[in-house]
Amino acid sequence: YENPKSILEPDAAGRNNIFFYLVLGFAFKVFGFQPSFYYGLVLILHIVVSILIIVFGYRVTGSKLASTMAGLFFLILSIHFQTVGWMENIGRVMMNALCLGALIQFDNYRKLHRTHNIIICWLLWFLALNSAEEAVVFPLILVIYDLFILKVNYFKKVHRGRLLALIPFVITQIAYFLFTLTFYGKAMGGYIG
Q1: Residue 189 backbone zone (phi > 0: left; psi -120 to 50: alpha; other: beta)
Q2: CA Rg, the chain, in Å?
Q3: 55 CB contacts (<8 Å, ≥6 apart)?
Q4: What single-letter DSSP state applies at residue 33?
Q5: CB neighbours of 84 closer than 8 A, spacing ≥ 6?
Q6: Least CB-packed of 41, 157, 179, 185 within 10 Å?
Q7: Cα angle for residues 105, 107, 112 (degrees, 5° grid)
Q8: Average pLDDT for runs of 10 along the chain of length 193
Q9: How large is the greatest C-alpha to C-alpha distance in the chain, in angstroms?
Q10: DSSP characters for 75-114?
């Protein structure tokens, strides 16, 4: 982190999680090699994700009990031990929090039709995508949410406009795919051109 330009370069596996490395670099500048801070940060982020699950769950189900149980189950589930226990996974926990925040903004957009909600949704997803690559599936999650939770039928004329909100996500996903493909090729010693 002594060379800020190194954040823009892919790591050995070709990943380019810029936002994750910026947060980690900032934390390193402030806290140095104090592992307790990093463990505390990932634990706090995990609690934030659990709270966001409760909020989103309530919005979808309307049940305080079901959403609270889902959030608490996520919080204490032992499978998350490695995610919370390893400092390296801060990016994945950040991605979870950012994607859930983006999903809540998407829900706001679909229900209230406010443009700023879809913009915030895209920005949160973009930060999530630059925290951990698993966020690449988020546009598919939006389509699934539309189809199965909101019961949107894209084939009906009245719902076709709803597809327009997904275009920035698809364009970003394609650009990210091409960007990543180029960096994977360079990271593996080849050039994809």
Answers
A1: left
A2: 18
A3: 67, 104
A4: S
A5: 42, 43, 46, 93
A6: 157
A7: 90
A8: 61 68 82 83 89 95 96 82 68 92 95 93 94 91 91 81 88 87 60 46
A9: 57
A10: HH-GGGHHHHH-GGGHHHHHHHHHHHHHHHHHHHHHHH--
What pLDDT was estimated at residue 191?
Answer: 47
Cβ atoms within 10 A of the Cβ of 158, count? 8
**Pair of tokens at residue 58:** 């309530």
Residues in the chain: 193
| HEC profile of 7-55 | HHCCCCCCCCCHHHHHHHHHHHHHHCCCHHHHHHHHHHHHHHHHHHHHH
Q: How far is CA 159 from CA 110, 115, 121, 146, in A?
A: 11, 17, 20, 10
Vertex 137: Cα angle to 15 and 171 (nearest 5): 85
Q: How far is CA 149 from CA 103, 119, 157, 171, 186, in A?
A: 12, 21, 19, 24, 41
pLDDT computed for residue 192 by the predictor: 47
